[in-house]
Amino acid sequence: MGAGGAPSATVGLFGSSPVGTTVRWIGTDVNVRVFYPAIVAVQSEGDSAQRARWIPDPQSVYLRGYARFLGLDVRPARWLFGLLFGSLRMEAVENLNPDVSRRLPVVIFSHGLGGTATAYAKLCCSLASHGCLVLALEHQDGSASATLTVSGTPLYYQAPTPDDSESKRRHIRQEQLDQRCREIQRVIEWLNGVTSDSAEDALLESLLQAVDPQQVTLCGHSFGGATVVRWCLSSQAVGVPLKHCILLDPWLWPLLQADGRVPAPAAEPASTLMIINGLFLKRLTPVERRALQTWPAVHRLVLLGAAHQVQSDFEHRLPRVFVRLVRLASRNDPDRLFDVQTELIQAFLGDDQEHFNRLLARHRDLVNRFK
């Protein structure tokens, strides 16, 4: 463990703790996939049968959602995706007993457009194995490729139409960001004991009792990065003791004002790490690039040759040929890119500046500072 109980990168990509996972609702409006350090390990390294499926149940809903999001013919794509992805497993086991023998720093994770709560499972499991409680939201705003409402009704991705004006598209995304921020606020209130949403849930209550409320990090990828920024712009951020913010290839276009700038944060923002993927950066307009340069960040890095989805599981779990076919492939080795950025995240969360700098020096062929 690093300073203040946060994870240290010096012990490798995956830490010593086995990882448990479960899906829970906080109230009736916040769907959370929980990743947590657990007590009982998987019996053997090669025994994957116990591990949770990467595509959760009901698989037909999530497979259909991914097919729709990619604009593919749903029936054949769902069948093909079932063959390719249906048996994939995460690095976590369902409903293990949590290890609450120590205080748990918290990472609240917000997915990007078309993402789900398991789309970033490798990163979430890595953080949990180092002692973090990771709360991966599956947003109910129509931005997930698929999710379920509290009643079990499927909710699929809802996109602006090609005929919508730029102002209407921005308005739709801003409404989604507002709902996402309400969900994050609900989680923060739960962590601080403001609500009693988990009073009858033994697993959540045991985790809640072990939470360190002074060690809360907001992390998001793409539209999830915009969600973190939007929350920091809100009045709700005032007085909330966030420890860190992590922005992974943030897509800030929905937040741009008429003058092309992102508003200043409502309060002094938490210490922020911004990691920008090189191939995504090339697609941004000068205005969008300037927004990345002006948002307050302690570290602003570029992963060279990295595609937009390198933080997600897609480049790491799916066949390379498929990743190239749907144009998600990085130019540099995606596994090495993922490992480097995850080690940097762990060093940042552990406030281990010396190790952070060593990582930058060691991997200068893959990561540069963005100025």
From TrEMBL:
EC number of this enzyme: 3.1.1.47
Print the keywords alphabetically.
Hydrolase, Lipid degradation, Lipid metabolism
GO BP annotations listed: lipid catabolic process
- Which EC class is this protein assigned? hydrolase
User: SUPFAM superfamilies, per this entry?
Assistant: alpha/beta-Hydrolases (SSF53474)
Query: What molecular function does GO assign, one term?
Result: 1-alkyl-2-acetylglycerophosphocholine esterase activity
Q: Mind telling me which Pfam families this protein's record contains?
A: PAF-AH_p_II (PF03403)
Q: What PANTHER family would the database entry show?
A: PLATELET-ACTIVATING FACTOR ACETYLHYDROLASE
Protein name (database record)? 1-alkyl-2-acetylglycerophosphocholine esterase
Mind giving the lineage of the organism this protein is from? Eukaryota, Rhodophyta, Bangiophyceae, Cyanidiales, Cyanidiaceae
